[in-house]
Amino acid sequence: MSLEQKMADFFKFEENDTDMQGEIRAGITTFLTMAYILLVNPAMLAVSGIPFDDALFATAIAAFVGCTVMGLWANKPYALAPGMGLNAYFVFAVVIGMGISWQVALAAVLVEGVIFMIISIPQIGWRTKMINAIPKDLKIATGAGIGMFLAIIGLREMGWIQDDGATLVNLATTESFAYDHGAVISMVALVAITVMMAKGIKGAIIYGILGASVFGWAVGAYDPYNDFAAGGAGWGSSTAEWPEMGEIFGFVGLPEESMGAAFNAFGDIGDDVAGFLLVMIAFLFVDIFDTAGTLYSVGRQAGDLDEDGNLIDSEEAFMSDAAATIVGAALGTSTTTTYIESAAGVEEGGRTGLTAVVVGVLMLSGLFLSGLFQAIPTFAMACALVIIGAMMMKQATDINWDDKEIVLPAFLTMVLMPFTYSIADGIAWGVISYVLIKMGMGKFDEPGPIMYGIAIFMTMFYLGPGDMSTFGWIFDKVL
């Protein structure tokens, strides 16, 4: 039996209507849309004090472990890596804002990952029960909301929108747009990707990203997202430049400070048990609902739902996520989660775990090729997010907009994701508003005990006395 046939049997290509070439292409596509994390996550975590090379090693290994487990055990095409948003919370809210050391913050992520793993065990199945209890229309709205979230991230990184003190978001300054401006190059790439997809050309997203990168390098294009002086994030160079051959290769080495720091930090928790618990709950809450929302929406796009609209074999997928979080925290990175960029690979035809395994293996290249990935312009990667966001919006048509009781919860679920830059916030207030509306209608039995429990937990997380959450107030009084 040939290797390809063995792979086909293991990953069930025929059952999923796919083949090895399509799965590998899908994996490359997903990787290209999320390779930025190999630069951005270490750069952000370095602000908290974690050495850049340590964080890069942890990022690559956590992504590899998560993707490999997801692919080989769950046989799902979903990629994992340390999550954006979660790393920002880790750095700016926990370490800088609360004054908690990065070592203790890693310990909180480690504990959160263990709890996440326990409640995801099939024999317990709390994670699956929670997600299945959420009404179908709200779960569909989650997918559409994630599409909008992807689009606003992509348009920002392309250089087409910017923050505005008066209107919150506005069109970026266009007077200086020229052929060597990343916004123009990325828009051309976006249109080209759409045309290729409409013509049925396989690998359209890869071609678009590579084409925009090569052209950007050739003309030294301006990368607006990385221009810190102009209000950009500044994670990379503001000018697209060919990667220097001497800087492409080189092993970052094993972490010198962050490896095992989470375990050593448990002895320091006694100084602020309340703060530790509050941070751990925050990481747990966001990880649970970020992962659930992403898995459901991308799974729906991949046709990976049963006849009741529930994700098939969700426990394995959840546990893959938890395993990656535990490994990542032990090595030195913030929470690892399933990536919404997985939708790019699904759109390219990825349907099995081979797609995830390909992403995981390519993530290891960050240990040796960090210079190459740092050279890929942000605007080139970002155009893929916009086209995938557009594709995901089609899910909104399946919501029952004639049901007045679901209109507001579904709408809040969708719009709060891009407006708050948080999948978890959108899900939370969609659920809370749904329960309140059902109570207002006198339909107290419809939400069910699980939905009531989720709504109460979420309300306690967001609201409380003064400027504290209810959890923060309780911990402050008790501990």
Topology (SSEs and partners):
Blueprint: H1 3-11, H2 20-34, H3 37-46, H4 52-74, E1 80-82, H5 86-97, H6 102-120, H7 126-133, H8 136-158, E2 161-164, E3 168-171, H9 182-198, H10 204-219, H11 245-248, H12 261-264, H13 273-301, H14 314-331, E4 336-338, H15 342-347, H16 353-364, H17 370-375, H18 378-392, H19 404-420, H20 423-440, H21 448-462, H22 470-478
Antiparallel strand pairs: 1-4, 2-3
Helix pairs in contact: 2-16, 3-4, 4-14, 4-16, 6-13, 6-14, 8-13, 8-18, 8-19, 8-20, 9-10, 9-18, 10-18, 13-20, 13-22, 19-20, 20-21
What are the low-pLDDT stretches, counting only 5+ consecutive residues below 50? none
Biggest sheet layout: 2 strands, antiparallel
Q: How many strands appear in the DSSP assignment?
A: 4
Helix content: 55-70%
Kindly estimate the percentage of residues that lie in beta strands according to DSSP: under 5%
Terminal residue distance: 63 Å
List the helices and strands in order.
Answer: HHHHEHHHHEEHHHHHHEHHHHHHHH
* DSSP summary: helix tally: 22
Textual characterization of the structure:
This protein is an all-alpha fold. It has one domain. The protein has 22 helices and four strands. β2 and β3 form a beta hairpin.
Keyword list:
479 residues, single chain, mainly alpha, two-stranded antiparallel sheet, two-stranded antiparallel ribbon
Describe the structure concisely.
The chain is an all-alpha fold.
